[in-house]
């Protein structure tokens, strides 16, 4: 019955999209923050607000005509699926996400494969990207292919690109294309483990002179040590192959034409290093032209014991005096498939950092991480076997933190989660991982948000779509000095917005002294701004807001738009200290799935009831299904969970529901679970049944328990329950949206009117359809989050957010 994994992926995509698009978190009425000392200023800038949704293209694929590092004049073919339609004036941007050079790039064609429309516009190139305006419109869902010539491959593998358009402006990254070593550096010793045997060495480079028929090539490995085995060695059982990639000829050199000299001290008088050489004689009748690109392989080689090895490919008979190519390789392996996730990372703020990787070399090991300071709890989960290990935190050295006590298995996949980790810097931060077995660091970049704790004025929009006609409300403003009538002007500006020139569209509401409010002032508009002359004065200390009807929103979607309000009276405005409302954390509201830590104990909350997590192994299993961050606090003390609470003890396939009597009832099947009106998204993973009494008989239905997400029909109206409150659904479109997002189905209630709580349960998370942001209930009032980072840092999880038709049945925090 346990289909939580696929449902969670679905819920994450839905909840994440709902939270961060269609208005997003930007337009807020409750500000996350703390008490502060306001500083008067002439102008105040708002918190970011959203205009439209910033979308990405999908299904980005990349192919190359040359897959060697550093190769020039390479043709990149990039295909993607447009999420949003584009006009004939919209452009496409292809940029390198791996170091490819675009300075000499030119677009040879752009084709809409869905409609067959094509263009040959060359585009505008920079060092790391190229922008092209195809000159044709495309539809949402169209598959588009861009062919770009003249690109230089990056120096290291792999190659990848990012694609954005004017209408899908959030870049989406392509697949990674593995590159083999080009002319330099040498790509030798695969696998690259010191003293390993049976290794294939690969040497690649362009011949710096012609090699005649019967001429020789040499490949060598040297190391700065004189002990036996410090340098690698060739073997008589190895296969030696020369490929002329330019002419297409391949020579497998017979053993009679291979001469080996291993571990020769050099220089001969007072040796400081060892060198091993294989001399390969080309067949008679075959030659290599100057400039031909060669690949030489030697199998069954033995790696040197020292980590630094110098490999070279040479043609001694060429008379040039220099090797074709030489390069130093650091032996050692790195973990594979390394990725880093830190979605709620804010500089200096504790958050969770997740590192996923595949072990290359197994055994007892220490994990070495850098780029962030790990938290006190670090859990390593073997995703192949499900085994979890709590790691110790050692003493850091040069910014590298050792996490001790791990054992890895070669080829197994792992997830390391550091709870309460902190980043020292904002922006793009490099995170590295190595182990004492996989010694070469693997590195990925994560984005860390800058700290932004200062309260700000707020902008709400009645319609957040780009280019829409909207009412803007600028709030959270206080007069630090008096704003005299007739002589004072307020200037409101926001890039890309068009403000109306009609006075009746404007009003200023004085919330402290309502009699001083006014409308229909004299206004003067400019590009992205409007200046309002105050017909009434605003007294010092008064809190006020500016309301503008008929604003044309900026035409481009942006989740970080801002507006500025300035007064003609210097240093006379401040953020209204009395208006700042702190959104309560999960340690206060105890939402479903909250992970509360007190001392060394972590409990998971379900229905306001604390389930104690007995050990790191069980904690790891819960974290695999619960996306909440761990927050510090005290545990809730309720005797039983709220009726309708759904739990799933880890390690079992069973779902249970809490009845009105506090007992728990198991479902016999998923069919029963669905028919009774429950939704999988609201099931909370718990360590066990928490000592609760198992009730007799069949489980109560969602119509009687008023479970979160239940869709219950009373009379001719369908209601949705969230936090005990029944909200009416007014039309089939709203119902279809809610059913799609929750997976719920309608059940029949008793009577014509629903039973509904007078106030919503603490910790209830809701998002009104088509509205901005997510709200949490506390003390019967809804509070809106300021940002996704705040939501995660405060210990909440997207999977438990309920889409509702309206917040009209709830009490909403206001100024």
List keywords for this structure.
7 helices, disordered N terminus, mainly beta, five-stranded antiparallel beta sheet, 7% helix, six-stranded antiparallel beta sheet, 39% strand, 815 residues
**β-sheet strand percentage:** 35-45%
- Helix- and strand-based class? mainly beta
From the spread of the alpha carbons, the general shape counts as globular
Helix segment count? 7
Report, as a whole number of angstroms, the end-to-end distance.
Answer: 47 Å
Question: How much helix is in the residues?
Answer: under 10%
**Which value, in Å, is the CA radius of gyration?**
33 Å
Average pLDDT number: 84
- What are the low-pLDDT stretches, counting only 5+ consecutive residues below 50? 1-38, 183-187
Q: How many extended strands?
A: 59
User: What can be said about the biggest beta sheet?
Assistant: 6 strands, antiparallel
Outline the structure in words.
With 815 residues, the protein is mainly beta. 7% of the residues lie in helices and 39% in strands. It contains seven helices and 59 strands. The strands form 13 sheets. Strands 32, 33, 35, 36, 39 and 42 form a six-stranded antiparallel beta sheet that branches. A five-stranded antiparallel beta sheet has the order 1-41-34-38-37, with no helix packed on it. A hairpin with a 5-residue loop joins strand 48 and strand 49. The longest helix has 17 residues, at 4-20. The protein starts with a helix and ends with a strand. Mean pLDDT is 84; it is low at 1-38 and 183-187.
């Amino acid at each position: 019955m346990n289909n939580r994994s696929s449902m969670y992926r679905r819920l994450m995509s839905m909840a994440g999209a709902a939270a961060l698009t269609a208005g997003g978190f930007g337009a807020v009425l409750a500000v996350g923050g703390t008490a502060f000392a306001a500083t008067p200023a002439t102008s105040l800038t708002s918190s970011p607000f959203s205009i439209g949704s910033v979308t990405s293209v999908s299904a980005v694929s990349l192919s190359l005509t040359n897959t060697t590092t550093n190769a020039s004049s390479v043709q990149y073919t990039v295909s993607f699926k447009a999420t949003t339609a584009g006009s004939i004036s919209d452009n496409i941007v292809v940029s390198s996400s791996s170091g490819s050079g675009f300075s000499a790039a030119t677009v040879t064609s752009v084709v809409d494969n869905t409609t067959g429309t094509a263009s040959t516009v060359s585009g505008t190139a920079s060092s790391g990207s190229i922008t092209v305006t195809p000159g044709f419109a495309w539809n949402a869902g169209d598959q588009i292919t861009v062919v770009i010539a003249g690109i230089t491959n990056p120096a290291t593998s792999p190659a990848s690109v990012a694609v954005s358009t004017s209408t899908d402006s959030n870049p989406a990254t392509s697949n990674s294309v593995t590159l083999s070593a080009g002319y330099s550096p040498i790509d030798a010793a695969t696998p690259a483990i010191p003293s390993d045997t049976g290794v294939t060495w690969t040497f690649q480079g362009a011949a710096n002179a012609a090699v005649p028929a019967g001429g020789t090539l040499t490949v060598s490995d040297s190391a700065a040590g004189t002990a036996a085995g410090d340098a690698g060695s060739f073997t008589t059982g190895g296969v030696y192959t020369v490929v002329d990639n330019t002419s297409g000829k391949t020579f497998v050199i017979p053993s009679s034409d291979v001469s080996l000299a291993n571990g020769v001290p050099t220089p001969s008088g007072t040796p400081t290093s060892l060198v091993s050489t294989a001399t390969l004689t080309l067949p008679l009748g075959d030659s290599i032209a100057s400039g031909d690109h060669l690949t030489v392989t030697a199998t069954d080689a033995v790696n040197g014991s020292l980590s630094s090895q110098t490999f070279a490919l040479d043609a001694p008979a060429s008379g040039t005096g220099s090797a074709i190519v030489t390069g130093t390789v650091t032996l050692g392996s790195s973990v594979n498939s390394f990725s880093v996730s830190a979605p709620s990372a804010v500089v200096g703020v504790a958050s969770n950092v997740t590192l996923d990787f595949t072990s290359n070399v197994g055994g007892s090991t220490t994990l070495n991480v850098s780029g962030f300071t790990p938290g006190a709890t670090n859990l390593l989960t073997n995703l192949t076997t499900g085994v979890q290990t709590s790691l110790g935190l050692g003493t850091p050295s040069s910014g590298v933190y050792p996490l001790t006590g791990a054992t890895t298995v070669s080829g197994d996949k792992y997830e390391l989660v550091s709870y309460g980790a902190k980043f020292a810097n904002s922006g793009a931060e490099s995170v590295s991982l190595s182990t004492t077995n996989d010694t070469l660091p693997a590195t990925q970049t994560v984005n860390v948000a800058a700290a932004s704790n200062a309260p700000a004025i707020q902008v709400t929009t009645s319609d957040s779509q780009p280019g829409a006609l909207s009412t803007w409300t600028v709030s959270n403003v206080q007069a630090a000095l008096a704003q005299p009538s007739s002589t004072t002007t307020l200037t409101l500006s926001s890039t890309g917005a068009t403000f109306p020139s009609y006075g009746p569209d404007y009003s200023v509401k004085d919330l402290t002294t309502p009699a001083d409010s006014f409308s229909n002032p004299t206004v003067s508009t400019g590009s992205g701004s409007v200046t309002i002359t105050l017909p009434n004065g605003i007294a010092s200390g008064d809190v006020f807001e500016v309301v503008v009807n008929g604003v044309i929103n900026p035409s481009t979607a942006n989740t970080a738009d801002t507006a500025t309000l300035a007064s003609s009276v210097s240093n006379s405005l401040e953020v209204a200290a009395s208006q700042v409302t702190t959104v309560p954390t999960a340690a206060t509201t105890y939402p479903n799935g909250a992970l509360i830590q007190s001392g060394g104990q972590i409990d998971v909350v379900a229905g306001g009831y604390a389930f104690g997590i007995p050990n790191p192994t069980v904690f790891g299993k819960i974290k695999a299904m619960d996306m909440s961050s761990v927050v510090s606090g005290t545990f809730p003390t309720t005797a039983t969970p709220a009726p309708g609470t759904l739990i799933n003890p880890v390690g079992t396939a069973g779902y249970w529901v809490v009845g009105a009597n506090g007992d728990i009832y198991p479902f016999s099947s998923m069919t029963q679970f669905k028919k009774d009106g429950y939704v999988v998204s609201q099931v909370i993973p718990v360590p066990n049944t928490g000592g609760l009494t198992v009730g007799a008989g069949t489980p109560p239905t969602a119509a009687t328990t008023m479970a979160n997400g239940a869709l219950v029909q009373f009379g001719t109206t369908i209601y949705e329950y969230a936090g005990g409150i029944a909200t009416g659904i007014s039309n089939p479109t709203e119902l279809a949206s809610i059913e799609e997002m929750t997976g719920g189905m309608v059940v029949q209630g008793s009577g014509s009117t629903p039973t509904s709580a007078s106030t919503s349960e603490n910790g209830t998370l809701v998002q009104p359809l088509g509205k901005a942001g997510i709200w949490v209930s506390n003390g019967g009032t809804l509070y809106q989050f300021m940002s996704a980072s705040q939501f995660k840092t405060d210990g909440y999880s997207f999977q438990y957010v309920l889409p509702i038709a309206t917040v009209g049945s709830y009490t909403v925090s206001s100024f």
